[in-house]
Design goal:
single chain; five-stranded mixed beta sheet; 149 residues; alpha/beta
Amino acid sequence: MQIKFMQRALELAQRAATEDEVPIGAVIVDPSTDSIIAEAYNQSQHILDATAHAEIEAIRKACRHLGQNRLRGMDMYVTLEPCTMCAAAISFARIEHLYFGAYDSKGGAVASGVRFFEASTCHHRPQVEGGILEAESAQLLKTFFQQKR
């Protein structure tokens, strides 16, 4: 795990905030080359698509970039604990490692809530590490929603 990739995800999350999107950023990394192969941030409001979460958008870009529907051996860095939809997509994409920033007690589905990867119906379970640059990730979200009120 490398902090620089989470820092890039945070930069993307900040960009989302400037576009009035929930500030979540994600990057997909090929650890064999130590390089980002795809990156994205939330786009749900901007493109009017409820599935346009940062994780989903990054997976779509990475699959197109690699010309395949699986991302075996790839790592994902995301600023917020993924929701159920995103956890399922991460599993289906066969992401190897998932690193996330802030925990999400309301909508998270990895360490919180349904704990998708622990379900017997989950066929692929990435290695997970949460709490990376957690304070920075959480503060970005807190500031965004305070400005909305």
